[in-house]
Design goal:
The complex is a heterodimer of chains A (about 475) and B (about 400). Chain A is α/β, with parallel strands linked by helices and about 475 residues long. Chain A has 11 helices and 23 strands. Helices cover about 25% and strands about 35% of the residues of chain A. Classes of the chains: A alpha/beta (about 475), B alpha/beta (about 400). Chains A and B meet through strand 21, strand 22 and strand 23 of A and strand 19 and strand 20 of B.
């Protein structure tokens, strides 16, 4: 075996271009977590009593839980008392229009390539921008309101639409669900809320952009999307964070409710700071994402995971209604010292339900990539179908790829197919391409893009372009 | 180390242990382990008369003790030793047998087996010897109705360039609650070739815990064929380490569940050297309320370049209450590898049934034909002709009963 080519080494050395931090006048709570902190967060947000009670119950549940250790991840112990659970850019007195957004924040988002000015928007996308703990602005609200679509920050939803929030909060991911979901339920600060009324096809893509800016803080956001009967929504999510030497915690919860015949398409391009070459710093990304699909409904998760030091994330679909459909398309890249333990859960409850899982894991550098998935067919799931394909691509000699699927079938009419493969980008493939006049970088990009094509095809156009670019940046210097 | 100090710290696995996720923990907790106490003489006359034994060399182990009277230990082939491990230890002959090192303390039942498995078959094939006739090891547990489980250890060592076939049958004389815990330790020297067949057919009131540990040197070949059909809980575990380059391991297994049986296959193949080949092909046919479990792992260690590994698990569910759980794992720490795995769960193909029925085959016959066709793909992989015929007969016999 020849040693890795220098071009490959170089390509793997890509830098993180979103690593800057912005000096914002920020209101930060002292580090530490106890009941008073939970009360403080709730008070800061002027929440109703029921929500505070819910948070406190979640906090009590969290205290009684143990941190999960089953994932294939080497994690430095997390000191939950050293994190500040509330960080918010100090608000301007009132925010009547987009022009009132703090210019510094606007500049930060411009630098990230996320224009918050509606007139500057290139595409038909409404954005909810979340910095540290709070949502700073939501664009295109008026246009959406015309269609009856509610798209706002979670805090605003609690104020303006308390009944909707109360009905659905925790209905898909109860606070007892797991350690990080319980933590999130206790201390979540903000996030997005989205409600599509019956029969409405949301007129534009909805998007949330998450930015961790402050030091020593965690970000705990919650997203709740409710799609009533016969509605449709496509939702995008992007994330970045500054380069810092210490690990920062991000523990989010996303709940999707797709009522009868509704469709929710949820796409993520996750690009949190991955840490440096020696594994110092980076975001710990512990996320619980789950959707409940009612009769004839469809929930589709697409994710491109290129960032974070640690990714622990299993977007799931509970296929409750008959003929409901669940989809999961994922590209997870772990380069440098990144570790990703990610996959999906498809729980078939209704009859004639079907699910598709396409997972592409790419390991480079010292990266470690694990696909962990569950396909479960309960007794009631007559004629359920699942197709799973998980492929791994290894680039370089020091990386690892694991595949750990669980398949549990309790109904003989169920049909499950699982396929997986692991392969490498070999010198010979690169040589072949170079012989035909391609540079090594181009050849690498072509091979990796071809490997991920099925997933990129599921992304909305702007995101697909972004994802391809991101992947080639993240792999820069890594060809192998 | 004394037996007591070995077993006093044993903590039984729970549902939270991945490898024991689907096991019936309550039943397992009722099993009791101890040194073999029943002398063979106390077995009621006639109880062991119907032991199904293949022609040729055979070791009969009753409740963990080799019954020399019922065994055929003398080989006409030079360089073949088949004996009782305890007897060999007593005469120091087995001082160098591999596998007596303290097992990893992670698995309670391995520790219990090491502590109480004082006897069992010892099979030694000298370098270059090619043995055509199969060696049969029959492990018989006689239940004491108190949940006593017998422990036995089989040692198989093949010298460089030798080849042999070993069949291990695990059965019971009696149908009370109890069980057996059998560990087989296999070591294959350079270029050695072993076909190892396990038939587990305990009554459905009992528990079987079987574990096969294989250590393979350069260019050695290990072929495992397992038939897991008996017991309330029937567990067959394989832990194969491809330690030398270009070694190959080919594991195939069939599990046939009915009633409320839980049949559990736990397979790990470790690629620790370059250019090794491994294959896992397991099939389950699950009827009534039975549960089939396949947890198969391919572990590619750093430096094991040129690994070629594949794995497949297919399950047929015959009843609405049957259940299949499959977990085909890959853990890869090297590049230059080619690994694939696949798993399917389904039922009998309606079209195929219809096709057969439209050609005059009765419903039950058509069903039988399709199931047998599915299962036979494993049975026909048994290389040794007489063993294959014998296995077919045993499985057919079972189906008729």
């Amino acid at each position: 075996m020849t040693s890795q080519s220098p071009v490959i080494e170089e390509l793997l050395d890509g830098s993180y271009e979103y690593g800057f931090s912005t000096d914002l006048d920020t209101d930060i709570a002292p580090p530490g977590l106890n009941e008073d902190v939970v009360r403080l967060i709730s008070a800061k947000k002027g929440e109703p009593e029921w929500l505070l009670e819910w948070r406190l119950k979640a906090f009590a549940a969290w205290q009684a839980m143990d941190e999960p250790d089953w994932a294939k991840l080497d994690i430095e112990p997390i000191d939950y008392q050293s994190i500040s659970y509330w960080a918010a850019p100090k608000p301007k007195p009132t925010l009547d229009s987009m022009d009132d957004v703090d210019p510094e924040i606007r500049e930060m988002f411009d630098k990230l390539g996320i224009p918050l000015h509606e007139q500057k928007m290139l595409s038909n996308v409404a954005i909810d921008a979340v910095v540290d703990s709070v949502s700073v602005t939501t664009t295109f609200k008026a246009t959406l309101a015309e269609a009856g679509v509610i798209f706002c920050s979670f805090s605003e939803a609690v104020r303006e639409h308390p009944d909707l929030v109360r009905e659905h909060l925790g209905s898909v991911v109860p606070f007892r669900d797991n350690y990080f979901a319980a933590l999130n339920s206790a201390v979540f600060s903000d996030g997005s809320f989205c409600y599509i009324p019956t029969g409405v096809r949301c007129p534009m893509e909805l998007s949330t952009y998450f930015r961790i800016n402050s030091q020593n803080t965690g970000q705990f956001e919650r997203t709740l999307i409710v799609a009533e009967d016969d509605s449709y929504v496509s939702y995008l999510e992007g994330c970045t964070a500054p380069m810092r030497d210490e690990n920062q915690l991000h523990a989010a919860v996303v709940e999707l409710v797709a009522k009868d015949r509704a469709t929710i398409k949820y796409s993520t391009v996750q690009n949190w700071y991955p840490g440096d070459d020696n594994g110092v710093g980076g975001i710990y990304n512990f996320v619980t994402k789950r959707g409940r699909a009612h009769t004839d409904a469809k929930i589709s998760w697409t994710q491109v995971e290129t960032g974070s030091a640690i990714t622990w994330k299993y977007p799931s679909v509970i296929l409750q209604g008959d003929r409901s459909v669940g989809e999961f398309y994922s590209v997870a890249l772990s380069n440098k010292r990144q570790q990703a333990d990610t996959g999906t859960k498809m729980v078939h409850i209704g009859a004639d339900t079907s699910s598709t899982v396409i997972s592409k894991g790419i390991s480079a550098g010292h990266g470690r990539n694990t696909y962990r998935g569950l396909v479960k067919m309960l007794r009631s799931a007559d004629n359920a179908r699942n197709y799973t394909q998980c492929d791994s691509l290894l680039i370089g000699k020091e990386c690892a790829a694991n595949t750990i699927p669980y398949i549990e079938v309790k109904n003989p009419t169920g049909q499950v197919e699982h396929e997986a493969s692991t392969s490498t980008v070999g010198e010979d493939q690169l040589y072949y391409c170079r012989q035909r006049g391609m540079t090594e970088e181009d050849a690498m990009a072509m091979i990796v893009n071809g490997f991920c094509r099925e997933v990129f095809g599921e992304l909305p156009m702007e995101f697909a372009v972004e994802a391809q670019r991101l992947l080639s940046v993240s792999l820069e210097g890594s060809v192998g | 180390m004394t037996t007591d100090s070995l077993t006093s710290n044993v903590v039984l696995p729970t549902k939270r242990d991945e490898a024991w996720r689907y096991a019936p923990h309550r039943t397992l907790a009722e099993l009791s382990f101890g040194p073999p106490n029943g002398s063979i003489a106390s077995v009621p006359a006639g109880l062991l008369d119907d032991i199904p034994v293949l022609d040729g060399l055979c070791v009969v182990v009753v409740n963990g003790i080799v019954d020399v009277g019922r065994s055929r230990l003398h080989s006409l082939v030079r360089g073949v030793t088949v004996s009782s491990r305890a007897a060999a230890l007593a005469t120091d002959r087995a001082a160098s047998t591999p596998g007596d090192e303290t097992p990893s303390p992670t698995d309670a039942y391995v520790v219990l087996n090491a502590a109480y498995g004082v006897d069992g078959a010892l099979i030694e094939i000298e370098p270059g010897v090619v043995l055509d006739e199969p060696i049969h090891v029959v492990d018989i547990s006689i239940p004491d109705h108190l949940g006593g489980a017998s422990c036995a250890r089989t040692h198989i060592h093949l010298g460089a360039g030798s080849s042999a076939t070993v069949v291990e049958t695990r059965i019971s004389a009696g149908s009370g609650f109890g069980g057996s815990n059998v560990c087989t330790l296999v070591s294959l020297d350079d270029g050695a070739e072993l076909e190892h067949v396990v038939l587990q057919d305990l009554p459905s009131s009992q528990v079987h815990l079987g574990r096969v540990e294989v250590d393979q040197a350069t260019r050695s070949t290990f072929r495992a064929r397992s038939f897991n059909t008996g017991g309330a809980y029937g567990r067959l575990e394989y832990h194969v380490v491809l330690r030398g380059p270009e070694a190959s391991a080919d594991l195939a297994g069939l599990y046939l569940g009915s009633g409320e049986q839980v049949l559990d296959q736990q397979v790990t193949v470790v690629h620790a050297a370059e250019n090794c080949v491994s294959r896992q092909a397991f099939r389950g046919v699950l009827d009534d309320e039975s549960t089939g479990v396949f947890n198969g792992g391919i572990d590619v260690r750093p430096g094991a370049d040129g690994t070629d590994a594949s794995q497949s698990n297919d399950n047929l569910l015959l009843s609405v209450r049957a259940e299949a759980n499959t977990q085909p794992r890959l853990e890869i720490l090297a590049d230059e590898v080619s690994c694939t795995h696949g798993a399917t769960v389904g039922r009998l193909d309606d079209d195929a049934l219809y096709y057969l029925r439209s050609r005059g085959v009765r419903a039950e016959g058509a069903r039988r034909l399709l199931i047998d066709g599915f299962a036979n793909q494993i049975v026909e992989q048994v290389g040794a002709g007489p063993v294959r015929a014998w296995i077919s007969h045993r499985l057919g016999y079972r189906d008729d009963g």
